[in-house]
Amino acid sequence: MKLLTRTIQQFFPAAKTVSAHCDGPCGVYDPASARIAAEAVLSMTKKILAIDTKDHSHATANSLSRFISIKEEQAHLAKTDLLVLWTDYFKPPHLEKYPDLHDTFWKAAKLCSAVKVEVSLEKAEALMKAVHKIHDIFWATKGREVPYYTAG
Fold first, then answer.
1. 148 neighbors 132 (Cβ within 8 angstroms)
2. CA distance 138 to 120
3. Cα(111)–Cα(82) distance, rounded to whole angstroms?
4. What is each CA distance from 60 to 56, 118, 135, in whole angstroms?
5. Among residues 139, 140, 108, which one has the least CA distance to residue 125?
6. DSSP code string of the chain
7. pLDDT in tens, the chain (152 residues)
8. Contact in structure between 137 and 104 (CB atoms under 8 Å)
9. Could you give the maximum distance between any two Cα atoms of the chain, in Å?
10. Which of 50, 39, 25, 126 shows the shortest CA–CA distance to 77?
């Protein structure tokens, strides 16, 4: 490997070491990704609660484990999407206009954690309401009216 690196450096000497990051330099934000993930959490929660586990079959166990896995994955994705939106998009002027912004995001992130470790229809629906509130605040900061809708 060292020989290969030296050979490449002989033909293409580095003029300067550079680095970059990709932490949202595009400036494209949208709470829709969090909504879709939260909807998947709600859907999986409903499916888990609807499963009759009395047969103790492998098929039932397989479906249950898949639904749980998807629910947890989507809850984590929703939390990540919300945290990026909260920490990268929203700025101090937004906080002045929406003084409960930090509390709103903090509670939404906590709901993401709760729906990940629990099977709670009430908390999954509360997460959807929190995402809806964030949707409304987000688009209001952009001066646009974007209808909130769900895919499910």
1. yes
2. 27
3. 11
4. 7, 19, 36
5. 108
6. -HHHHHHHHHHS--S-------SSTT----THHHHHHHHHHHHHHHHHHH--GGG--HHHHHHHHHHHHHHHHHHHHHHHHHHHIIIII--HHHHHH-TTHHHHHHHHHHHHHHHHHS--HHHHHHHHHHHHHHHHHHHHHTT---------
7. 666 666 667 766 665 554 444 555 678 899 999 999 999 999 999 999 999 999 999 999 999 999 999 999 999 999 999 999 999 999 999 999 999 999 999 999 999 999 999 999 999 999 999 999 999 999 999 999 999 999 97
8. yes
9. 69
10. 39
User: Which tokens is 100 given?
Assistant: 């409960």
Q: Which residues of 83-93 are buried (b: 16+ CB within 10 A; e: fewer)?
A: eebbeebbeee
